[in-house]
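Tokens in:
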């Protein structure tokens, strides 16, 4: 009797323990695991992953009860996240060689039903990795929640990050008169103005942050797109114009730095006198939200109205846990993408 030929193996990253506290590096909770590469069933495809997106929220999903509007990671289970790849084997109508996007990142390859993978319009984009962006959140927050209109003065906190870097550009594309961004280093401040087209930017670690904000917006801020919370939220309340709209997208000051950054104090009397509108929101990536962003994304890229701010990190899947650690420390600009394979 012949000996069965063993299946090839592939690697995936799994959650081995829940993350407890902001001081725990996410990489300490993760391990690489080798598994047999499964055979295809009818209607399935095998995709070799080429690029994978890494976002700050992944660290929160590693806690036991994240309380977020998305599925948490489960113990001894591969993480999920946005990725692009190439179909290398098909038992379906989706041809080999098709470039696709999907939500099964954190592994070298993935097998699944063909209808869970979406072809990438590579003819419209500079590269397949350009679909790995946080534009749906940025667009929904700027357009639907904050309702940015021509002439607005807009302040974006955490503007060098994946969401903020696109939110500021979308505000400009919508006709905002002046867009201000904040970042944590002088290099990132220069990057916002010189490469992303922000009108001005502030290092939030410099002294006199509120005074700088008021000087840049002497008539007040009409829109505050907040990804940070903490002191920057409190400063925005003081610098806001009457009827200012606050779109609250994230609380990185609490997620990354710990402490009370995620629970800023609201000066109620100032908010009442100015009649501020505080609009917290979550983005559920509904078909309408995705379609609205996609309708504008490639067009604005082609028109030069926006650029895709991103950092590509080499090193393959083995580098991804450390990349998440580094992301939380503010090591990158824009959307963070790990190059997994040959692309």
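Residues out:
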């Amino acid at each position: 009797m012949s000996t069965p030929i063993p299946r090839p193996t592939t690697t995936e990253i799994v959650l081995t323990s829940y993350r407890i506290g902001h001081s725990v590096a996410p990489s300490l909770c993760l391990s690489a695991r080798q598994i047999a590469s499964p055979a295809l069933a009818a209607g399935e495809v095998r995709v070799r992953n080429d690029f994978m997106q890494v976002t700050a929220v992944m660290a929160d999903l590693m806690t036991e009860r994240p309380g977020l509007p998305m599925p948490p990671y489960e113990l001894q289970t591969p993480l999920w996240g946005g990725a692009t790849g190439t179909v290398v084997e098909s038992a379906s109508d989706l041809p080999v060689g098709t470039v696709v996007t999907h939500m099964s990142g954190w592994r070298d390859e993935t097998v699944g039903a063909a209808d869970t993978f979406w072809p990438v319009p590579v003819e419209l984009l500079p590269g397949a990795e350009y679909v790995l962006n946080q534009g749906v959140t940025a667009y929904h927050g700027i357009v639907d929640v904050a309702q940015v209109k021509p002439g607005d003065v807009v302040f974006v906190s955490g503007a060098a990050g994946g969401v903020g870097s696109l939110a500021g550009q979308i505000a400009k594309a919508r006709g905002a008169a002046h867009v201000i961004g904040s970042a944590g280093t002088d290099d990132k401040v220069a990057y916002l103005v010189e490469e992303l087209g922000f009108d001005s930017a502030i290092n939030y670690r410099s002294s006199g942050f509120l005074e700088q904000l008021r000087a840049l917006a002497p008539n007040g801020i009409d829109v505050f797109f907040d990804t940070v919370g903490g002191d920057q939220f409190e400063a925005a309340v003081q610098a806001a114009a009457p009827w200012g709209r606050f779109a609250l997208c994230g609380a990185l000051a609490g997620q990354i730095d710990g402490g009370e950054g995620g629970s800023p104090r609201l000066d109620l009397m100032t908010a009442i006198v100015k009649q501020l509108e505080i609009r917290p929101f979550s983005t559920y990536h509904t078909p309408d939200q995705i379609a609205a962003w996609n309708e504008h994304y490639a067009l604005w890229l082609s028109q030069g109205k926006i650029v895709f701010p991103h950092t590509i990190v080499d090193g393959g899947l083995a580098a991804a846990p450390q990349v998440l650690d580094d992301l939380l420390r503010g090591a990158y600009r824009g959307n963070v993408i790990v190059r997994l394979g040959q692309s």
